[in-house]
Amino acid sequence: MPDIASLKLLGLAGVVSYAAARLAAKAGMIGYSRCLLVAVPLSNMPAMPGGFRVIPLTLDQLATHSIDIPPSVQKARFDQGMTCLGAFNRRDELVGVTWVGKGPFQEDIIHVRFAVPPDAAWDTGLWIAPRHRLGRGFAALWAGTADWLRENNRQWSTSWIADYNLPSLLSHKRMGAKTLGHILILRFFRWQYMAQGEPRLVRLSGPPANHNVQPDPQIASVQA
């Protein structure tokens, strides 16, 4: 449960969203998500910290490392044209990874396909190894994302954040992220309703986080 300081920062909407998401998770086949659609400008992303390098990794290269992301999810992201960026420290240890691509991209956590404008990219799945979470791995991955954006002539990196995920909200705020909108998703068994996007009501072919992700034709789409 968030502490008092966190509750004040989240505000009433964030607190209600956090409680609703927890109750829905306990209910099992009922789902609730309220997300912010955000865009981080290239101009505000950090420079590469000293002692780090960020390089693209193939699926086979990624398989040689132990990360807390199921192999099926990794493959699904590659299959959708995403680039996996891996951050390494001066000891050549993999500190973390993130995925970035031109989209459209179907998320593996929520049943939504996101499209992005020509001057933007989509980022997802940022992960830092637990023993490195107090270091500069986060900054290194964002610096690597900035390099990827420059190479691909993009000016923004877009993503979604649960509106109660305070650490992510604050980190994006520090980089001058712009809020593009809110996404409210309600799920009841295999039916999903989304207040934004088209179509609003869809019948899902599988659970939202089944870790065996396949492109789903019956899915709502959102334009960033």
Your description of this structure?
The chain is of the alpha+beta class and 224 residues long. It has one domain (4-223): Aminopeptidase, CATH 3.40.630.30. The protein is 27% helix and 33% strand. The protein is built from five helices and twelve strands. The protein has helices at residues 4-27, 59-62, 71-79, 137-151, 166-174, and strands at residues 30-41, 53-57, 83-88, 94-101, 105-106, 112-115, 120-128, 156-162, 178-188, 191-194, 201-203, 220-223. Strands 2-3-4-7-8-1-9-10-11 form a nine-stranded mixed β-sheet. Strands 5-6-12 form a three-stranded mixed β-sheet, with no helix packed on it. The radius of gyration is 17 Å and the shape is globular.
Taking pLDDT < 50 over at least 5 consecutive residues as the criterion, the unreliable ranges are 12-21, 207-220
Strand arrangement across the biggest beta sheet:
2-3-4-7-8-1-9-10-11
What is the N-to-C succession of helices and strands? HEEHHEEEEEHEHEEEE
**Shape label:** globular
N-to-C CA distance: 31 Å
The figure for the number of domains is 1
Q: Strand fraction band? A: 25-35%
Number of helical stretches of at least 4 residues = 5
What name does the CATH topology carry? Aminopeptidase
- Please provide the count of β strands: 12
Report the CATH C-level class. Alpha Beta
What do we call the CATH homologous superfamily?
Gcn5-related N-acetyltransferase (GNAT)
Sheet of most strands: 9 strands, mixed
Radius of gyration: 17 Å
Structural class: alpha+beta
Named CATH architecture: 3-Layer(aba) Sandwich
Helicity range: 25-40%
Quote the average pLDDT: 80
